[in-house]
Design a protein that fits this description.
two-stranded antiparallel sheet, FMN_Rdtase-like_dom, EC 1.-.-.-, Rossmann fold, oxidoreductase activity, alpha/beta, Flavoprotein-like_sf, NAD(P)H-dep_reductase
Length: 196
């Protein structure tokens, strides 16, 4: 049996990103479940605003290759105006069925205020349209500024329950990485991608 490889995409560009911290924690849990892991930090990738006529712009080919080669994917984002971030949306626009079809995906959303349910629903819809299998368990971190203490690499959780919820996401994405969902969902057969 080959080792499971988990890729996390961080949709926050902030230096002191709570999303990045939480994804790192989830990846640590995935590594403890015997997976190899990689964080795709969107600050480090040249992904111009997606243009279907320029689909191979910047680092797009390397970025999509890394996503495609993953057995499972974690998507992490801050909630902006009730949805997920523009950098993550742009990164996902470069991806398609080749990267997501039949892949297990875990969702993590961080919010400055209340529970970020709409952002989780929006990401779930995108993954469903790409015929991915989204974990039922999802990790939400409301009031994020109170969930962490410390700066840089020297930080910790202030609440063990939240930390465990994020760790479960990392473990579950490994446990269910090789699930074979069927039949394809209706959205995946109706939404074949941009053709404008």
């Amino acid at each position: 049996m080959t080792e499971t490889h988990v890729v996390a995409i961080c949709g926050s560009l902030r230096d002191e990103s709570h999303t990045r911290k939480a994804l790192t924690h989830a990846l640590d849990a995935a590594a403890r479940a015997d997976a190899t892991t990689e964080l795709l930090d969107l600050r480090e990738w040249d992904l111009p605003v997606f243009d279907a006529d320029e689909g191979e712009a910047g680092d797009a080919l390397e970025f999509t290759r890394r996503v495609r080669e993953a057995d499972a994917i974690l998507l992490g984002t801050p909630m902006y105006h009730g949805s997920y971030s523009a950098p993550l949306k742009n990164a996902l626009d470069y991806c398609g069925f080749d990267e997501f079809e039949n892949k297990t995906v875990g969702l993590l959303v961080v919010a400055g205020g209340n529970f970020p349910i709409t952002a989780l629903e929006h990401l779930r819809s995108v993954c469903r349209a790409l015929d991915a299998w989204v974990l039922p368990h999802q990790a939400a971190i409301p009031r994020a500024s109170a969930a962490f203490e410390g700066e840089g690499d020297d930080w910790d959780w202030t609440d063990e329950e939240t930390a465990e919820r994020v760790a479960v996401l990392g473990r579950d994405v490994v446990q269910y990485a090789n699930i074979e969902p069927e039949p394809p969902c209706l959205e995946s057969t109706e939404n074949v991608g941009a053709d404008d």
